[in-house]
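COMPLEX REQUEST
Ligand: AVW
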Amino acid sequence: MPSKCTSSWSWKKILLLIVGLFISLVIIVAACIVIYTRTQNQLETKSWKGKGTSKYLKEIIIGRCYNYLTINPAIGEKDCYGIWEEFAKAVYQKKPCNITEENYRHLTELAGQTIPCHKSLLWSKTNYLVHRYTKATQDFLTLENTLLGYLADGLSWCGKSHSSGMNFQSCPDWNECDNNSVSSFWKMASAAFARASCGVVNIMLNGSAYGGVTRNESILRTIEIPNLNPRTVSEVRIWVMNDLNDHNRNSCNSESLMELKHYIEEHNLTSSCVNNYRPAQLLQCIENPEHAACNLCTKNIKRSIPQKYS
Ligand code: AVW
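STATUS: Structure written out below.
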């Protein structure tokens, strides 16, 4: 018959074995979770076709915000750190293809500003010229000249669904999915800019562009024109700018412009058009002073007289 002492010793051994097994199991499960999460993160961070989040995104956004407030004190106080937090909140721990315009609503409100009437300048296919122009004259404001557009101009970003922080490896391309972090931001910001515009709204278009003056899915057509308020916008004035070194493929009378004019009218807005709006053309002339259109004595100057459509 085994002694009491031997039996309690074997019970202790069994207990120790059970505890040991339990601890090992916990360690194995924890390790599996860590490995799984890391693998998921690695798979996710490298899985998109576009370039990753811009390096130093947080610092750039906060820096641009203070810079904008310093240059434009009239827009009043803004909480630059709060703006960054809203920016991050819109994409952190979310799938980069599941970011809707709604996710940026609070950010749009925080960074919003009043747009003076007659100052809005929309554009399509003229990014370079339009911003050279607004920099030179300060007479008009594009979305990228407002705080919200200025903060994000030229940057890319997206979050990760399995953890906080940005994905610096890759982000969805503009066309990779409908609701991606960058395209939803620009759609939301463009809609807000158009809604805030009043008086005469100008649009700079590219007379030398292939395939018409706008893409069918362009932000100008799909977001901005539908969000202009006919009660507060008195006229939509189009400038068709030809590249001085290229052919003239679109002008106020061309099919593409006529189609756009009808589209604008369908939204209960009136429009006018001018070929080669002279102040912007003079800016093109800085790079092309010998071009015939840059000769102050030519009849080209007449082209700047707006042509009323309706
Ligand atoms: P744009 P929008 N693929 O010159 O009218 C890649 O055609 O669209 O002018 N990039 C795109 C795409 C796309 N399908 N769509 C837009 N983008 C981005 C804001 C890309 O960064 C201002 F207020 C491209 O360089 C203007 O009135 C840029 O959008 C209006 O939206 C311009 O495409 C201009 O947009």
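REMARKS: The two ends are 113 Å apart (CA to CA). Strands lie at 50-51, 121-123, 170-171, 199-206, 233-241, 271-275, 307-308.
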